[in-house]
């Protein structure tokens, strides 16, 4: 076999391996966060959040390679199929999960870190019509956003922060803080407790 063909086959095999590993990682992260299922197969077949994420990965690749119309068409097809609208320009990290999915909107300049979880009805939206500036939020690693929350503008939600259900956030949220209410107020868990445990005890996160 010619050397160039061997190199091409190796590159192709490596791409397939990386894609397979990424899908498995997504599935395991989803199963870990969804107590309603313990099956990779069920999650792969029946999770609109995962379907939206996988479609976004493909549309984002098209977008960054300059094929913007196909990217938008794919993202709109995914929106119709899943109820989740993710602009192909948005940047999303590893092990991202959208539970339930319906009504989630993620804008073009949004940036999302690793291990982020959104519930249904979340909007990562903009407060500017200027196409030359960053208009959407940045979410750090390990952020959880409750159902119906709106995070608007070029703001930062720090690592490990929690945004309560139906909150409206228009200012930065520090790492490991809790933001709840309209407009959102920010507070930190009691210093004597484990921060992650205390965050999950906040009733307003689940309202």
From TrEMBL:
GO cellular component: cytoplasm
Keyword Ribonucleoprotein: no
Pathway: Amino-acid biosynthesis; L-cysteine biosynthesis; L-cysteine from L-serine: step 1/2
Catalysed reactions listed for this entry: L-serine + acetyl-CoA = O-acetyl-L-serine + CoA
InterPro entries in the cross-refs: Hexapep, Hexapep_transf_CS, LbH_SAT, Ser_AcTrfase_N_sf, Ser_O-AcTrfase, Serine_acetyltransferase, Trimer_LpxA-like_sf
Gene3D superfamilies in alphabetical order: Hexapeptide repeat proteins, serine acetyltransferase, domain 1
Gene Ontology biological process terms from the UniProt entry: cysteine biosynthetic process from serine
EC number: 2.3.1.30
Enzyme class: transferase
Family according to the record: Belongs to the transferase hexapeptide repeat family.
Protein name per Swiss-Prot or TrEMBL: Serine acetyltransferase
Lineage: Bacteria, Bacillati, Actinomycetota, Actinomycetes, Micrococcales
């Amino acid at each position: 076999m010619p050397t160039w063909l061997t190199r091409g086959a190796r590159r192709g095999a490596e791409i397939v391996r990386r894609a397979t590993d990424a899908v498995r990682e997504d599935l395991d992260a989803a199963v870990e966060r969804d107590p309603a299922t313990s099956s990779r197969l069920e999650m792969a077949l029946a999770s609109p959040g995962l379907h939206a994420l996988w479609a976004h990965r493909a549309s984002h690749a098209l977008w960054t390679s300059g094929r913007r119309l196909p990217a938008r068409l794919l993202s709109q097809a995914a929106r119709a199929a899943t109820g989740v609208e993710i602009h192909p320009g948005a940047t999303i990290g590893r092990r991202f999960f959208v539970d339930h999915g319906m009504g989630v909107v993620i804008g073009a300049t949004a940036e999302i870190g690793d291990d982020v979880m959104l519930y249904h009805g979340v909007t990562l939206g903009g407060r500017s019509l200027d196409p030359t500036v960053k208009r959407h939020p940045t979410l750090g690693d390990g952020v959880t956003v409750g159902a119906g929350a709106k995070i608007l503008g070029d703001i930062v939600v720090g690592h490990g922060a929690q945004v309560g259900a139906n909150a409206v956030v228009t200012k930065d949220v520090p790492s490991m803080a809790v933001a709840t209410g309209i407009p959102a107020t920010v507070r930190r868990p009691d210093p004597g407790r484990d921060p992650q445990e205390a965050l999950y005890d906040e009733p307003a996160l689940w309202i």
